[in-house]
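Tokens help. One example:
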Amino acid sequence: TRSGVFEYENALTISMIEELKEKGHLEEAVLPLEDALADYDKLFVKAEYKKKIDNGNPLPTDAFIQDISDLDKMYRVYNAEGDFFALYQFDKETGKMKPKKIFPITE
């Protein structure tokens, strides 16, 4: 049984998570956000759109290094530095890729 990238075989019970917490190893139970969203294809923004992506603006479909194969899909979007930044999806009204969820970049 699975849901997206999550498989039953890798699931932890609450008692297992509590034990990891008590031992100071809770971070071992947490997947990176990018891994949890691995079912979404990646798009990388061209360098000339750095300011727009950094400000979370909608982007034209040609703002990405790759061609967008399916305008009905949601994509993981990476900024000009290659950092995972947001989930974007095509907006038919504006004809642009629009952010659906922006994630803070942590160093």
Observations:
- Residues 14-22 form the longest helix (9 residues).
- The CA atoms of residues 19 and 26 lie 8 Å apart.
- The chain is about 15% helix and 25% strand.
- The beta strands are 2-3, 6-7, 41-44, 74-78, 84-91, 96-102.
